[in-house]
Amino acid sequence: xxxxxxxxxxxxxxxxxxxxxxxxxxxxxxxxxxxxxxxxxxxxxxxxxxxxxxxxxxxxxxxxxxxxxxxxxxxxxxxxxxxxxxxxxxxxxxxxxxxxxxxxxxxxxxxxxxxxxxxxxxxxxxxxxxxxxx
Length: 134
What we know:
Elements: H1 2-22, E1 28-31, E2 34-45, E3 50-64, E4 67-72, E5 75-79, E6 84-85, H2 86-89, E7 95-103, E8 108-117, E9 122-123, E10 127-132
Antiparallel strand pairs: 1-2, 2-3, 3-4, 3-5, 4-7, 5-6, 7-8, 8-9, 8-10
């Protein structure tokens, strides 16, 4: 089983390196000030010997020059632990990931985020973050 884990990790690293050198990550502009940014992520847990493939589509609206509002969700495309695949995601409503980012200056940024479970009709804790980059 350990050889399978090492082979999977090597394959993931090679695939990631190939994608990184052949394509640039860039949001697709849908309309003025509205873009779609999608991330596909393969995660391998070495000790647990599991693999998970997720996709995270995110819409971003540039409300003002320094304010971005975004909404997205994460879907499991495939998981080898419970043989989960994308059709399982259709059995329930998604959890929306909501975020607002405001750039006070080049160094200061404020961010507010929360998740909203459409199936339960509940929101998570609201997270407020102030960051200073230098």
